[in-house]
């Protein structure tokens, strides 16, 4: 797991030279779509123009699904929520980021593990396991779930912007 105290700016490269940040996630998704479409078109091209079109469409879908498997950058997500949590309507006045941070991290981790599911489909499991995931947060699940859902939705929206259509099947 990434060190949330890491001073690197989101979007930097880590010690191994691997890109980090939301751009890396979106780049992985876009690369999956483009690569899948190119491969599908090449295979489809062997059967003529119609096959190329069908192959490109099938390849794009397969590439999009592969690109969705890219994990979010917890350092970039922590930086985003640290900057933006206080303006959320579910945040109680005077509550510190330290109370909400585990819930945001939990939402990022849960979405990374279940990118093909809806939050509502996994909420009961997340609620059951919150006691273990919460660390030192004083929030009970009835309050933490809003921040967890918010982090989940942010990642889902980022992926959906990179993949054409309603990839998360939420009607948006």
Structure characterization notes:
This protein is an all-alpha fold and 172 residues long. 63% of the residues lie in helices and 0% in strands. The chain is built from 6 helices and no strands. The radius of gyration is 19 Å and the shape is globular. It starts with 21 loop residues before the first helix and ends in a 10-residue tail after the last helix.
Question: In sequence order, what are the helices and strands, one letter per element?
Answer: HHHHHH
How much helical structure, as a percent, in the residues?
A: 55-70%
Averaging pLDDT over every residue, what do you get? 74
Low-confidence parts lasting 5 or more residues at pLDDT below 50? 1-13, 15-20, 24-30, 62-68
Beta-strand level of the residues, as a percent range?
Answer: under 5%
Terminal CA distance: 31 Å
Helical/strand content category: mainly alpha
Count the E strands: 0
Largest sheet: none
Shape: globular
Count of alpha/pi helices: 6
Radius of gyration, in angstroms, nearest whole number: 19 Å
Task: Provide keyphrases for this structure.
172 residues
Summarize the structure.
With 172 residues, the chain is mainly alpha-helical. The protein is built from six helices and no strands.
How are the elements arranged and paired?
Elements (H helix, E strand, L loop, with lengths): L21 H24 L3 H20 L5 H11 L12 H17 L5 H15 L7 H22 L10
Helix pairs in contact: 1-2, 3-4, 4-5, 4-6, 5-6
């Amino acid at each position: 797991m990434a060190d949330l105290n890491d001073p690197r700016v989101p979007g930097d490269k880590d010690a191994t030279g691997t890109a980090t940040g939301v751009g890396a996630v979106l780049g992985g998704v876009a690369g999956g779509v483009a690569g899948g479409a190119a491969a599908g078109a090449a295979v489809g091209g062997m059967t003529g123009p119609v096959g190329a079109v069908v192959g490109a469409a099938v390849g794009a879908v397969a590439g999009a699904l592969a690109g969705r498997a890219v994990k979010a950058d917890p350092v970039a997500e922590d930086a985003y929520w640290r900057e933006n949590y206080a303006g959320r309507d579910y945040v109680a006045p005077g509550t510190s980021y330290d109370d909400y941070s585990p819930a945001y991290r939990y939402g990022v981790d849960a979405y990374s593990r279940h990118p093909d599911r809806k939050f509502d489909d996994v909420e009961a499991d997340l609620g059951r396991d919150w006691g273990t995931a919460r660390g030192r947060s004083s929030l009970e699940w009835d309050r933490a779930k809003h921040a967890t859902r918010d982090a989940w939705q942010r990642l889902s929206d980022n992926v959906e912007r990179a993949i054409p259509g309603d990839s998360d099947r939420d009607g948006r």
